[in-house]
Amino acid sequence: MAACIFCKIIKGEIPCFKLFESEKTLAFLDIQPLSKGHALVIPKHHGEKLTDIPDDHLGEILPVVKKLAVATGANEWNLLQNNGKGAHQEVGHVHFHMIPKPNPEQGLGIRWPQQETDMDKLKALFEEIKGKI
């Protein structure tokens, strides 16, 4: 995509602090980090949501995240990937954040509003989803 900032980074049109690169994957430091070592791992194939990316372009993502976590010395970290503006995706190109969590003030803060559930409804949902996999 011509206007995609991550595609421009992949093409070398915009500089980045490149940490890893292969034929299908690029990892670089986030320029607005939540903590020291916050990095982005992206597939080179352009797609807005994870479901838009071919499976063979996703194979290196988790191993690269693991390498980044080890290389940064992160003892605790979050792996974040958002799909769509309503889910807080800012850049319309699939990307994974590896965010070290060195202390309560730095890194990713999460609110987890759990909901009560009805087991019969949960079982029906389970059967619906499992039937589509």
UniProtKB/TrEMBL annotation:
TM region(s), chain numbering: none
Example of a GO biological process term: nucleotide metabolic process
Keywords from the named record: Hydrolase, Magnesium, Nucleotide-binding
MF terms (GO), sorted A to Z: hydrolase activity; nucleotide binding
The reaction(s) this protein catalyses: adenosine 5'-phosphoramidate + H2O = NH4(+) + AMP
Domain HIT, first and last residues per copy: 5-108
Protein origin, superkingdom: Eukaryota
Entry keyword annotation includes Nucleotidyltransferase: no
InterPro entries registered for this protein in UniProt: HINT, Histidine_triad_CS, Histidine_triad_HIT, HIT-like, HIT-like_sf
Pfam families: HIT (PF01230)
Cofactor(s), by name: Mg(2+)
Motif Histidine triad motif, residue range(s) on this chain: 93-97
Family the entry assigns: Belongs to the HINT family.
Protein name, as recorded: Adenosine 5'-monophosphoramidase HNT1
Organism: Podospora australis
